[in-house]
Design brief:
Radius of gyration: 29 Å
Helix content: 25-40%
CATH class of the largest domain: Alpha Beta
Largest sheet: 9 strands, mixed
Strand content: 25-35%
Number of strands: 18
Structural class: alpha/beta
CATH architecture of the largest domain: 3-Layer(aba) Sandwich
Oligomer: single chain
CATH topology of the largest domain: Rossmann fold
CATH superfamily of the largest domain: P-loop containing nucleotide triphosphate hydrolases
Shape: elongated
Distance between the termini: 49 Å
Order of helices and strands: EEHEEEHEHHEHEHEEHEEEEHEEEEHH
Length: 343
């Protein structure tokens, strides 16, 4: 399956400052208070995730000034303004209000003098304050904005959380992806999305989720649409999960080479993010559900530094070295003494 050819979902062109403030309060749980032009938020828009601290702009150097970004006034900027005479304060702040800035955040519990807030009000530039430290505030704000403007794509498959590992089951239509996902849910694992899976690139990882239409619903051929959450309970679903393993199903073909050792680690690129992929041939009677669980557990072992294939390879190398020394080729019993246990 050519994952790189999946359609790119157009990222948001812009978000309103009003939406930003409401989401920061409701989703991110930040405490931000309006100081000036709070009613102008619905008319102000952001078009990128980057932030800007206008230290140089306050001194009058506005060449290449990124005014279209969120402006952050921290301790340094506020201390600089407070040490200026009132006339110089207004002049310095006027370098900012001369531009159509979308919003200004004043962090670390700082406050702007009333004359400067009046200038922002006259320029219809929203000013908000927060007691959060500047670095922490910028980190959380940038994380939210990067999520809003992130690249996305849509893939056809079933996304399941298996033992905490995000496994995306893919393959041709009708091969049994939904049935395997349903069996995994019945065994206690959690469904993220079925049929249509959205992948969002965030901080160089891929976050998987359902769409607003198919959230916690599943189609089983011959049965129809079922509601996983209503049928199995809230423990059977989750709304998002990081994609960690691709499980691609295909029909068994004797002419196709199949990996027998696991030494060759294959990967696929989705939105320029490399993801491990397991290509699994299926035949009638093959228990794919259990294999999916084993794939997840094996991925966990790899994360903890243990590779079964490499461990077995080292055992073979050790046996070959012993053979060269002793000349013995006979296989040895794994247990030296049965201790009378003859069951």
């Amino acid at each position: 399956m050519p994952y790189g050819n999946n359609p790119i979902v157009p990222k948001k062109r812009r978000i309103s400052v009003e939406f930003l403030i409401s989401q920061l309060r409701e989703k991110v749980r930040m405490q931000v208070q309006a100081c000036a032009a709070g009613g102008a938020c619905m008319k102000r828009f952001l078009t990128e995730a980057d932030l800007h601290r206008p230290g140089l702009a306050l001194t009058g150097y506005t060449h290449l000034y990124a005014w279209e970004r969120v402006q952050i006034l921290g301790n340094t900027e506020c201390e600089y303004l407070s040490n200026l005479p009132q006339a110089e304060q207004r002049k310095a702040f006027g370098y900012l209000t001369a531009f159509d800035i979308p919003i200004i955040f004043v962090t670390h519990g700082n406050n702007l003098p009333a004359p400067l807030l009046k200038m922002a009000e006259d320029a219809v530039i929203p000013v908000f304050t927060t007691h959060m430290e500047t670095v922490k505030f910028m980190y959380m704000l940038r994380d939210f904005l990067e999520d809003q403007f992130a690249l996305q794509t849509i893939v056809h498959g079933a996304m399941v959380d298996v033992y905490g590992i995000g496994v995306l089951i893919t393959g041709k239509a009708g091969i049994g992806k939904s049935e395997i996902a349903l069996d995994l849910v019945e065994r206690g694992h959690r469904l993220v999305a079925d049929d249509v899976v959205t992948l969002t690139k965030k901080n160089n990882v891929l976050m998987a989720a359902a769409t607003d239409m198919n959230k916690h619903f599943m189609e089983v051929r011959g049965l129809g649409i079922i509601d996983i959450m209503s049928m199995f309970g809230i423990r059977a679903v989750r709304y998002q999960k990081r994609l960690e393993v691709l499980l691609e199903l295909y029909l068994w073909d004797e002419l196709t080479d199949v990996d027998r050792t696991g030494l060759e680690k294959k990967r696929e690129s989705i939105l320029d993010v490399s993801v491990p992929i397991i290509k699994l041939p299926i035949t009638p009677g093959k228990n794919i559900t259990v294999i999916a669980e084993v794939i997840a557990m094996n991925h966990l072992l790899n994360n903890y530094g243990y590779d079964s294939a490499k461990a077995f390879q080292e055992r073979i190398k050790t046996r070959i070295a012993q053979k060269q020394k002793t000349g013995s080729t006979d296989p040895r019993r794994a247990v030296d003494y049965f201790e009378g246990d003859v069951e």
